[in-house]
Write a structure and sequence with these properties.
The complex is a heterodimer of chains A (111) and B (122).
Chain A lengths: L8 E4 L5 E6 L12 E5 L6 E4 L13 E6 L2 E6 L8 E9 L4 E4 L3 E5 L1
Parallel strand pairs in A: 1-9
Antiparallel strand pairs in A: 2-6, 3-4, 3-7, 5-6, 7-8, 7-9
Chain B lengths: L2 E5 L2 E3 L5 E8 L8 E6 L5 E7 L6 E3 L7 E6 L4 E6 L8 E8 L9 E4 L3 E5 L2
Parallel strand pairs in B: 2-11
Antiparallel strand pairs in B: 1-3, 3-8, 4-5, 4-9, 5-6, 7-8, 9-10, 9-11
The chains are: A mainly beta (111), B mainly beta (122).
Chain lengths: 111, 122
């Protein structure tokens, strides 16, 4: 059972904005550990999209952004594109588990 | 260019053992913590194990603690995962992942290998 909860899926038309929530607890996000986001296309290696809540690695488009509020984090995709259709995961350290933890994952569907 | 190449996956019977390896290149291996992450069929990503840059600290998920052992050889730029007492629920694609920060402890994963499939079945 994951310590980070995400919605199973979100959908949007090309050009629209979608957001993905990542809800944690006092032992992970609420304890001020950084949250990171990954994009995963089936059959490929996962890709780091956002680190430390809102920072983009070099090469990641600006339409991806992250934020935090209390014991939750969010990933926003603005100007949705067909190539954004993938699975997205949040990740954080959890002090109760003494290790890293991934969110349950969210499938983004581009209509 | 950072490259991570996993090997060692395959079919193994329940209760059996398997050792995964990850050959790293394109960065100073001994500077970064390294990790194993898996994806079970039809499910999401699951963190498995991490090791500090020097190898003196290891971390394992509760689901594999006591059965899996992570290790590294900084002289050979190689990461390993020894898996014992394998169960059907360990069936997954196992990814080797590099930490993004040059520090001892795991943080986030900026480079991943292509993965190696482990199937536990009789």
């Amino acid at each position: 059972q994951s310590a980070l909860t995400q919605p199973p899926s979100v959908s949007g038309a090309p050009g629209q904005r979608v957001t993905i929530s990542c809800t944690g607890s006092s032992s992970n996000i609420g304890a001020n550990y950084d949250v990171h986001w990954y994009q995963h296309l089936p059959g490929t290696a996962p890709k780091l999209l956002i680190y430390a809540y809102s920072n983009r690695p070099s090469g990641v488009p600006g339409r991806f952004s992250g934020s935090r509020s209390g014991t939750s984090a969010s990933l926003a995709i603005t100007g949705l594109q067909a190539e954004d259709e993938a699975d997205y995961y949040c990740q954080c350290y959890d002090s109760r588990l003494s290790g890293s933890v991934f969110g349950t994952g969210t499938k983004v569907n581009v209509l | 260019e950072v490259q991570l190449l996993e090997s060692g996956g395959g079919l193994v019977q329940p209760g059996g053992s398997l050792t995964l390896s990850c050959a790293a290149s394109g960065f100073t291996f001994s500077t970064y913590a390294m990790s194993w992450v898996r994806q079970t069929p039809g499910k999401g990503l699951e963190w498995v194990s991490s090791i500090s840059n020097s190898g003196d600290r290891t971390y394992h998920a509760d689901s594999v603690k006591g059965r899996f052992t992570i290790s590294r050889d900084n002289s050979k730029n190689t990461l390993s995962l020894q898996m014992n007492s394998l169960r059907a629920e360990d069936t997954a694609v196992y990814y080797c992942a590099k930490d993004m920060k040059p520090a001892a402890d795991p943080y986030s994963f900026d480079y991943w290998g292509q993965g190696t499939l482990v199937t536990v079945s009789s």
